[in-house]
């Protein structure tokens, strides 16, 4: 669990990633919970109350909400909750997340391009606009051959499907899976995932890993059909009001 959380964090790099013992204080101008939270996966090197004070100070420094990312049921989940921190119910993308894994099995589809850099069309489908500096840092820190930005283009040249795939050690981290509304229910998400899996296998990965909010039942069902299984869950905890 600890290793997998660290691999996922490396695949989704925050603008600032500061160690606090075995914790990682992360900030990226508010773009995603993963990149704007303290990843608690080991001993912070100080009592937990002091570590949480450091989390608050880091959040103030970077203008983000104080938030701790903890694997559910871990010692750090229990220790942070014991200090009165509770579920971040205001986190619109979902405060409770499943980490899913699967062996890499796939086939490259000729419709899927897998360049090392995202096109403007990829950005527009994935984010709805061209990226901010923080978004670019997290998703495309710069021509890394271990990352592919899969896309499918429609007849008019518009990107209608996108996926981000990053190899970290022996895992392929899959993220940003999007299909344009008009192109849904045509199996394009499955095609994108299969092509990303084969690309990852060719680049030395053996397993796929992805993170999906528990409330995103449609995505959970898709991944279940494709053979992904839950490895563990994590959740975001925030300080008590006041």
Automatic annotation (TrEMBL):
Residue span(s) of domain N-acetyltransferase: 99-242
Keywords, ordered alphabetically: Acyltransferase, Transferase
Domain of life: Bacteria
The keyword Transferase appears for this protein: yes
Pfam families the record matches: Rv0428c_C
Signal peptide: none
Alphabetical list of SUPFAM superfamilies matching this protein: Acyl-CoA N-acyltransferases (Nat)
Identification of the protein by name: GNAT family N-acetyltransferase
Naturally occurring in which organism (per UniProt): Pseudonocardia alaniniphila
């Amino acid at each position: 669990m600890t290793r997998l959380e660290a691999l996922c964090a490396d695949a989704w790099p925050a603008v600032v990633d500061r160690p606090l013992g075995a914790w990682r204080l992360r900030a990226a101008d508010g773009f995603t919970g993963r990149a704007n939270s303290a990843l608690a996966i080991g001993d912070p090197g100080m009592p937990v109350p002091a570590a949480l004070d450091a989390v608050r100070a880091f959040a103030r420094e970077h203008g983000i909400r104080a938030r701790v990312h903890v694997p559910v049921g871990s010692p750090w989940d229990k220790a942070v909750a014991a200090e009165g921190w509770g579920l971040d119910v205001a986190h619109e993308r979902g405060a409770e997340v499943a980490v899913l894994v699967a062996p890499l099995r796939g086939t490259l589809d000729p419709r899927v391009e897998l360049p090392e850099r995202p096109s403007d069309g990829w950005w527009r489908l994935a984010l709805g606009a061209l990226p901010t500096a923080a978004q670019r840092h997290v998703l495309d820190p710069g021509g890394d051959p271990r990352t592919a930005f899969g896309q499918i283009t429609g007849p008019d040249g518009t990107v209608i499907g996108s996926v981000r795939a990053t190899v970290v050690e022996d895992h392929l981290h899959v993220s940003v899976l999007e299909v344009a509304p008009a192109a849904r229910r045509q199996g394009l998400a499955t095609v994108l995932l299969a092509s990303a899996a084969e690309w990852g296998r060719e680049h030395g990965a053996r397993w796929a890993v992805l993170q999906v909010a528990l409330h995103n039942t449609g995505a959970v069902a898709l991944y279940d059909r494709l053979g992904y299984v839950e490895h563990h869950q994590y959740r975001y905890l925030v300080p008590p009001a006041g």
